[in-house]
Amino acid sequence: MVARHDQTKDPRLQEQLLQARRGTAFFARKLNELTDAELDGGSLLPGWTRRHIVAHVGYNARAIARLIEWAATGVETPMYSSPEARNHEIEFGATLSPIALRHLFDHSAVHLNVEWRDLPADAWHHKVKTVQGRTVPAEETVWMRTREVWMHAVDLDNGATFNDIPAPVLERLLTDITGAWHTRGMDQGLLVKVTGTDLAFGDTRAANPTVISGPLAAVVEWAAGRGSGVTAVRKSAALHDAPAAPKWI
Q: Is the pLDDT of residue 68 over 50?
């Protein structure tokens, strides 16, 4: 049987799909390392067990697949009927048996991958709407999924760290996070720098900013609200503790 391949031939989109698939495989590996009993343990997200993380990532794949169906058919198919429905879905998923929860992740990931693979090349530019109400081309769904699987693999609290996330993914995460701060006016007086690079984000015009710096992985971990392994300086004087990062989602 001849293997089926992605319909798109866009090398940039193919690379993005590869990062999403690698992230899915990485999440699957960290999940499969957990015993059924360990699924009941806490995650790095307050109020969520590992079960909640797995349920969220599984149902997220189904939601994104609905957007791809929208792009393919032109029939509007929202990610979720409402925010309440999304939250209920996650809470319900967290109560599934371990085998059902694992199947939810596996099957939803395969389904999304097939939807991506079979989407005609021209349909990747068709517009869909995210759960936040943003109208975006279907190709944006690849990044939406990439972000979910890589970050939530860390949130499983099973040994994964931001150092495991590829640099291109980290850089785009940092761009997204700081962009959200700027849109909401939450980055005033805050400058984020990645040591050893020219990367700088935030309030680059501030006369006396609080400068947060560190390696790329540490800076993104801090910006995402999941760590504090960065240095904070104001007026050339180190602060005792780095301030908490502004909320971004």
A: yes
* Residue 1 confidence (pLDDT): 38
Contact 210, 234 (CB under 8 A): yes
Rounded Cα–Cα distance for residues 149 and 33 (Å): 16
Give domain status of residue 243, yes or no.
Answer: no
Six token digits for residue 144: 């939406």
CA angle 101, 150, 225 (to 5 degrees): 105
Q: What pLDDT, in 10s, does the model give residues 25-39?
A: 999 999 999 999 999
**How many domains in the chain?**
2
Which pLDDT belongs to residue 102?
A: 98
- The three-state secondary structure class of 196 is coil
Whether residue 4 is predicted with pLDDT greater than 80 in this model: the reply is: no
Cα 17 from Cα 117, distance rounded (Å): 9
Percent of the chain with pLDDT over 70: 96
For the chain, where are the alpha helices, taking DSSP H only?
Answer: 11-32, 50-73, 83-93, 98-118, 140-155, 167-183, 216-223
Residues 6 or more apart whose CB falls under 8 angstroms from that of 171 comprise: 199, 216
Residue 249 is predicted with a pLDDT of 78
Residue 49: which domain range? Answer: 11-160
Query: Do 134 and 24 belong to one domain?
Result: yes
Q: At what angle do helices 140-155 and 167-183 cross, to 10 degrees?
A: 100
CB atoms within 10 A of CB 176: 17
Does residue 114 lie in a domain region?
A: yes
Q: Is the pTM of this model over 0.70?
A: yes
Chain position carrying tokens 């509007």: 76
CATH number at residue 117: 1.20.120.450
